[in-house]
């Protein structure tokens, strides 16, 4: 499932991170650093087109919390300083449930950052989300592919500009361990299973470690596994048919993907290194699930590009570092299909200051400002990959920008909420707990809205 880093922010405990930028217009509050702690004044020339505002405030709400929230605020700090718009930001791990409560209660934020197109569509159906301003749509037409624009479009009306992104399906490993053991990076799914069997037989560590615990969202990392296999085994056309419900959820091609994933995740000989048997996957918090790769208790961990921020401070992410990653391979060597996620900026208000912030967040300048702070990527075509702070982020950006990449958005994020963020997640839990594939798929299929 989604998370541009989307899902990674869904943790067990409800928490709010309320952060406020109270920044004055250019020339008011910032001075050149004189050694007394003052930050250099922003160069406001790039922000003149947005105008200047006095006592203007825009509220923004999303799933993004903690360090990532601070970096998000940093990406619009100069904009705020130069325009005089105070951005009052609130990040919540309960965004998915609370955004609907707020909008139905008549107290929505000015701007919401949606981690799932399906959730965006549900809010649009509620009648509170406004179509995107013309200037935002023009920027998206210029800076993103048609597919990415489509994820922010509902019933042929464009509502939300893409913001950040993630590449799903990375398999994380310790390069030193692989070199020491003589393990080659697999180029096909069959080779990955052969490697899994080889590591299990060698006996010094489990081939895989995994963690699906995420509070009310427990199970979502398992949906990412399944989605990767559907795309790689059945192909993009079947993947699209599955999302659109042109084929049922219990179609044999979906069952085949579940069973292939189950050959790994439901086998106690293959998981769960450092934690227990296969059922311990459900009690292992997903941010902690990769740690045994560094501890030598497991060889591989399947997680998106945002896993880089889950490693302990000081971990070197590089081909010759403490940890690196390869993309889950396809049926044939050289396959170029990847899954991913992203976030989308929509508005519930159309005051000039709201439109100004919404417009800025659709620009290449915003994408560059956020990515150069680290821990983020974007599919914005104006993003300079050289600004990425890690080799993996640069690789991910280049994949997103390449015309040769077959990209498909996280399926559960595109499905109706009753399925994508409900029965699919809970079905994964029942499946890991021992339920048969056919039983789980029948239950999910029966939950699809008529």
Descriptive notes:
The chain has 450 residues and is of the alpha/beta class. It has two domains: 7-166 and 342-398, D-Maltodextrin-Binding Protein, domain 2 (3-Layer(aba) Sandwich); 170-327 and 416-446, Periplasmic binding protein-like II (D-Maltodextrin-Binding Protein, domain 2, 3-Layer(aba) Sandwich), CATH 3.40.190.10. It is 39% helix and 15% strand. The protein has 18 helices and 13 strands. The strands form three sheets. Strands 1, 2, 3, 4, 7, 12 and 13 form a seven-stranded mixed β-sheet that branches. It has a four-stranded mixed β-sheet with strand order 9-10-8-11. Helix 9 crosses helix 11 and helix 17 runs antiparallel to helix 18. The chain is globular and about 70 Å long.
Question: How would the global form be characterised?
Answer: globular
CATH architecture of the largest domain: 3-Layer(aba) Sandwich
Helix content: 25-40%
Number of strand segments: 13
Number of helices: 18
Strand content: 15-25%
Class based on secondary structure composition and strand pairing: alpha/beta
Poorly predicted parts: 1-36
CATH class of the largest domain: Alpha Beta
Span of the ends, CA to CA: 23 Å
User: What gyration radius follows from the Cα positions, in whole Å?
Assistant: 22 Å
The CATH superfamily name of the largest domain is Periplasmic binding protein-like II
